[in-house]
Amino acid sequence: MNRTIGNQYIGAVDLGTTSNRFIIFDHEGRIIGLEQMEHAQIFPKPGWVEHDPMEIWKNTEKVIAGALKNAGIAGDALAAIGITNQRETTVVWDKRTGRPFYNAIVWQCTRTDKICRQLAGESGPDRFREKTGLPVSTYFSGPKIRWILDHVPEAKSAARSGDAFFGTIESWIIWWLTGGPNGGAHVTDVSNASRTLLMNLKALAWDEEILDALEIPRQMLPTIVPSVDTVPWGLTSKESALGAAVPVCGAVGDQQAALVGQACFDAGEAKNTYGTGCFLLLNTGETPVVSRHGLLTTVGYQIRGEKPVYCLEGSVAMAGALVQWLRDNLGLIASAPEVETLAQTVDDNGGAYIVPAFSGLFAPYWRPDARGVIAGLTRFVNKGHVARAVLEACAYQTMDIVDAMNKDAGIDLTHLKVDGGMVANELLMQFQADILNVPVIRPKVAETTALGAAYAAGLAVGYWTDLKSLRQNWAEDKTWQPDMKPVDREKGVRGWQKAVDRTFDWVE
């Protein structure tokens, strides 16, 4: 499919864990318009995390309208729209009305622990790893669907009658953008489907054995499509916030989208995104690599007509969310950027470590029994040390993943491309380079997640011709070189590892 380029742009809907954004890019990958809105984080019980799906949809309409206004353009100036999203978060809704049967259950939520233990059974967490690349974990969507069907009778009966749809957040928004109850497209791209625990990685199809084990009706599930699709899933309506018929034809889960936005198209290239969580992806090419060291095997992206590109991924649940906790729960800072200022009031962490296992520990440990600790406290420690320990926790968790990735890949990482909201934090970036002992590189366009979604849609309609043209858009902004004595690095790592050990076996 080709649309005349002219002076057109590409729009990207970025559906994050804490906010929605619409960003408009030009042909060089520069931002020409942006709007952002936060949505409520709902915590009904300890370990439970929810979002209101209707709030996310309404905010999506508002940020689209706002970004168009800020850019001074109309919706018909867009060649296409791409979507990127928080991935495993689960929505089940009535396909006749668009009404959700329950709040979205967020990827961080741990309520499905019992379902996961029963599903793992005697085979253990790796029961479906060979097929899916994933351990059986509360992280993924399949068990969340089962929980909704078990606890919402209306959803269960609708699923049986064929009136219930399941989707991760990109499926939910694509459905609304392309018509909702009036013929909206019910699709999910391969990168998001690979995060459900329901898709066979090699076949790129829903796995009947796993659906049977979880008792999930096949008819609930969206059609699996390529990330870059030359056959549009639908057009936006003239009554929508866009006021025009724009093709919706690109979708990539947020972490894979950042890989695309960072132009990591060759096997061996890696990026780390510092957002609500921390996610490090390594491109392994057209062959899925099964991890032996606690990482996930996932689909990176797929262009229609081509083989999928696979990745190894390490996932950290709490990165930017730990800074939010410092702000909202403890009140030590009034805004997120203040954490760096506060951390700079001290020279080091004062011996204090924070391990933010608020929802258990993700990669490479996979310990749902773990809970957060602050270790090494003395009377000497003040709020500056606590702020510094918060930032260092992000870097140490990344280090754990890099160590596992080096073992799985059989080669050592030589540099790390970084993106996400926290890369503006210079203290964190320097400490990351120090603790990894490799250069850390920030690109000029830090909004690589939304850029990756824009690339997916733009490639689909011929706005960009190929991956080579996308590489030319990437440019370095700043590089941090490691500058820490080996003895100091080793001491810090030992302290971190002792603190991690203290988190285990808290939940019995």
For the largest sheet, list the strands in their spatial order.
Answer: 17-18-16-15-21-22-23
Q: Supply the number of helical segments.
A: 16
By helix and strand content, what is the structural category?
alpha+beta
Estimate the helix proportion, in percent.
25-40%
- Report the β-strand fraction as a percent range: 15-25%
Shape descriptor: globular
Q: Mind summarizing the main beta sheet? A: 7 strands, mixed
pLDDT averaged residue by residue:
93
The overall strand count is 23
Using only C-alpha atoms, the radius of gyration works out to 22 Å
Describe this structure in words.
This protein has 508 residues and is an alpha+beta fold. The protein is 33% helix and 21% strand. It has 16 helices and 23 strands. Strands 17-18-16-15-21-22-23 form a 7-stranded mixed beta sheet. A 6-stranded mixed beta sheet has the order 3-2-1-5-14-13, sandwiched between helices. Strand 1 (9-15) and strand 2 (19-25) form a beta hairpin. It is globular and about 65 Å long. The chain starts with 8 loop residues before the first strand and ends in a 5-residue tail after the last helix.
Q: Secondary-structure map with pairings?
A:
Layout: E1 9-15, E2 19-25, E3 31-38, E4 50-51, H1 53-71, E5 78-85, E6 90-94, E7 104-105, H2 113-120, H3 129-132, H4 141-151, H5 153-161, E8 164-168, H6 169-177, E9 187-189, H7 190-193, E10 199-200, E11 205-206, H8 208-214, E12 223-225, E13 234-235, E14 247-253, H9 254-261, E15 270-274, E16 278-285, E17 296-301, E18 309-316, H10 320-328, H11 338-343, E19 353-355, E20 373-375, H12 383-409, E21 416-419, H13 426-436, E22 440-443, H14 448-460, H15 467-471, E23 476-480, H16 486-503
Parallel strand pairs: 1-5, 5-14, 9-12, 15-21, 21-22
Antiparallel strand pairs: 1-2, 2-3, 4-7, 6-8, 10-11, 13-14, 15-16, 16-18, 17-18, 19-20, 22-23
Helix pairs in contact: 1-6, 4-5, 9-14, 10-12, 12-13
